[in-house]
Automatic annotation (TrEMBL):
Keyword Transmembrane helix: yes
Transmembrane parts of this sequence: 20-38
Entry keyword set: Membrane, Transmembrane, Transmembrane helix
Organism: Shimia sagamensis
Protein name per its UniProtKB record: Flp pilus assembly protein, pilin Flp
Length: 66
């Protein structure tokens, strides 16, 4: 049993997988932070545009005639 434990401790075959998991988690976390920043920065202009569009009256709009 002792040789098995020594060989198991020396084996580094799964180390690359752990690295990729950590890198992927970091990228996903960064994407969430960027998405939250973009969402909060665009909330006010989108709301203002929606209010303007909802308040527009199509019957009084001036259209160019030929």
């Amino acid at each position: 049993m002792k040789p098995f434990i020594k060989n198991f401790r020396k084996d580094e075959a799964g180390a690359v997988t752990v690295d990729w998991v950590v890198l992927t988690a970091g990228i996903v976390g960064l994407a969430v932070v960027v998405f939250a920043a973009i969402e909060s920065a665009t909330a006010t202009p989108v709301t203002a545009a929606a209010v303007t569009i909802n308040g527009a009256d199509a019957s009084t709009a001036a259209f160019a005639t030929e």
